[in-house]
Amino acid sequence: MKLGYWIAHITVTRPDRYHDYMRATPDVIEKFGGRFLARAGVSETPEGEAYDRQVIIEFPSLADALACYNSADYAAARALREGACIAHVSIVEGV
Question: How many C-beta atoms surround the C-beta of residue 43 within 10 A?
Answer without folding.
Answer: 12
